[in-house]
Amino acid sequence: MEHIVFAHDLTKADRVVLETLATDYSDHLKTKDSQVPPDSAYASASDTEATETTGTKETGATSTYTHGSAKGGVNKDVAGVSQRKSATRTSEAITRLSALNDPTSPSFEPTITNFFDLADLQSFTWLPSSVLNAYTQWASSLIRVPTDILMITHLLLYFSTTVPSALYLLFIRFSWPHAVLHAVINGWYVGTYTLMMHQHIHMRGILTRDKLWTRLFDAVFPYLLDPLMGHTWNSYYYHHVKHHHVEGNGPDDLSSTIRYQRDELSEFLKYVGRFYFLVWLDLPLYFMRKGRYVEGAKAAFWEYASYAMYVFLWKYAPGGGKATFWTLVLPFLVLRVALMAGNWGQHAFVDDEEPESDYRSSVTLVDVASNRHCYNDGYHTSHHLNPLRHWREHPVAFLKGKETYAAENALVFHNIDYMMVTVRLLRKDYMTLAKCLVPIGEFQMNMTLEERAAYLQRKTRRFSEEEIKAKFGKKAN
After folding, report:
1. Where are the domains of the chain?
2. pLDDT tens, position by position, 168-218
3. CB < 8 Å & 24+ apart, contacts of 380-384
4. Which of 343, 347, 364, 355 is nearest to 411 (CA)?
5. What sequence ranges are listed for the domain Fatty acid desaturase (predicted)?
6. Alpha-carbon gap, residue 220 to 229, rounded angstroms
């Protein structure tokens, strides 16, 4: 319990999830403490009869624990109370989080900005409630899902900063201070933008379909913003939706981690290098091998058209090569490394018995960077279980499936993001990763910190081709 950290800026949903898991673990430890060895000197009558009253932060309820008997073993009454408390606590958490997502509920809270919750915005004396309410009402009329006002906020931000800045550098006047500032600010935007587009490519849009102009804008804006954020046209859709989610980190997944030793820098460099230099060829060929020729042709066309656009602007834009590099090429070069570093962290821990299981080949992160700033990207297992699940529904879905996650020995980390998972792995810092692991289920909860570290290390081992054939069967052919 001493290693579980509640960051002050966790989302409301993440705080509820982490409190639920932490209290489950705390109750397990108390139940375990009630186990007294046979013939123990401490197994006195007074110990047997002693009781302890504790409270939970979430419900405020109190429960009475009876310490173990002289015969040893876990007291069944204690275990039963603990299980009932966990079920009640989880049910209450699900109800609470579901209400936050339900526009018909008095507790409904749309996400307006990633930095502040609705209650924070309402508390600011400098922000008139009339302005906040007017913006919320206006943005709600444009967005497809009522919770997603944040996406309107971000589109306004990108079109008022990134777009005019890039156009100025490319077509009016290039200057080094402006170019560097543009790159820094865009680098700050790109994670949030990419995960907004992650929602876009899975939902086939984020704006309401009720208006013609929003349907048109929804279809067109990625062709302007994607290159400025480092994405080639439609490559995210074809690689992620049409390829990665079809293969699921299996042997035919071009971004699969199973053929690499996931805590070796040399292996990581090979992994990134393959994608970095060859995805322009690998992805179209993948579709061709699968007999999906139209998708292969489309993937190739949009990738090569993006390169042609870079060359054209490099040669003919008034800002020339310098402006093209800083506004288009540099974001492209950086993002491709970031995407693979993130995917490495998402799929670094793969179970050697059931590597096909989404529960055992991906992870869940309860952290600020992934979930507050990147649309609950930390709930990666939930996303693989249902790629069409809306981002605000991931914490609810996780709690609803908590017992299954535990039974499958799924991995849940906190206070760490995917990039730092990758960094810690490459440093072989399994003790830090073990401290970030939130134990779920009796198997993990009974581990010592050292055992958790060893358990995680076993899951980063490279699969041989023989193992891949044995574990994946026809998928490996």
Report:
1. 12-101
2. 999 999 999 999 999 999 999 999 999 999 999 999 999 999 999 999 999
3. 380/346, 381/405, 381/410, 384/245, 384/248, 384/358
4. 364
5. 175-411
6. 15
